[in-house]
Amino acid sequence: MPSPITTIVMKDFTFKLAYTEIILTYNININITLTDFIENIKSAVLNDLHMENIEIVPTGQDYVPGRAAEDADALLPSSQYTLAEYFREKIYFTSFYIRQINNGNQYLDTNMDVDMDISELEQHSALN
User: Fold this and answer.
1) E strands along 2-60, which residues?
2) Per-residue pLDDT for 124 more than 90?
3) Which pLDDT belongs to residue 55?
4) Number of domains in the chain
5) More exposed terminus of the chain, fewer Cβ within 10 Å: N or C?
6) Exposure pattern of 81-117 as b/e (b: 16+ CB <10 Å)?
7) What is the torsional sign of CA 120, 60, 79, 102?
8) What would you report as the CA-atom Rg of the chain, rounded to the nearest whole angstrom?
């Protein structure tokens, strides 16, 4: 039995590198699975920022006193849900943090060295 046809609906998503001022924008099909989304972003971040071991953290999560927005829960992979299904109507207002992890799920909360020069960054991001 052939797999169902998935409509391609592209949307620009903004990603802020946690604890920095670096902002990236990626154009993503909202009908891909969460697993594919995470893997695509990991690949793009490896290519653009030369960073491995990252988590994708949706913005706009419930406020927890004493916790920075970058410290919120990471998006978990799922082949059951697409981005559009998971975020529903919020899909058009969702952005993400890119958080580097170290030793399991212990993220780095210090200044991170990003191995790139400013010309590379300007090709892939919008600086504030």
Assistant:
1) 10-17, 23-29, 54-58
2) no
3) 96
4) 1
5) N
6) ebbbebbeeebeebebbbbbeeeeeebeeeebebeee
7) positive
8) 15
Query: Does residue 9 sit within a domain?
Result: no
The span from the CA of 112 to the CA of 102, in Å, is 12
Q: Mean pLDDT throughout 112-118? A: 43
pLDDT digits (tens, 9 = 90+) for 87-102: 999 999 999 999 998 7
Query: How far separated are the first and last CA of the chain, in Å rounded?
Result: 49
Identify whether 45 is part of a domain. yes
- Residue-range definition of the domain harbouring residue 88: 17-124
Residue 51 lies in a domain: yes
CA distance 74 to 106: 12
pTM above 0.90, yes or no: no
